[in-house]
Amino acid sequence: MKAELRPGDYFCVRTGSWVSGAILAAQKLKALDRESTYNHAGIVVASDGTTFESLRRIAHYDINAYTGCRILVARHRDMTMPAFMRGYHAVKKWDGQVYPFWRLALHAVGLAGFLHVIEIPVCSELVVEHCHHAGLCDYPGYGWNPDNLADKFRNYKCYDVLYEGEW
User: Considering the domain boundaries, does residue 5 fall inside one?
Assistant: First the structure.
């Protein structure tokens, strides 16, 4: 059974493009557990599955576009509608921005957490920025990747994994 979605839920997904393979390989090299399962992440903004993600553009999409893909959906235990809205208003400023492809190279060499002059986030950084501005984590989003997020969702007690499997 798929998860009952709410605004403020987060997800990680494994897609099948050549870029996803490169992301997975780069993440695996740096992963403490030497595993890398997910290459993309996003924020659920409505119970119908509408998402806010950094893909070709930072914009609204639909989680059901990932039907057939492996997905993990998680919820912070303290996520409320006011917290969601605080985070959403903070990240909404990037709506329509082109995906920051240059940041992938910074992630590959481990500098993404330090160099973010043009502050447009990749997908996982967008999720952590949302969480940060929602007041649910005390660190900014730059430098996070989808593999880090999946590990965080599974291992931090403040998150519940609502679903993990094929969507």
Answer: no
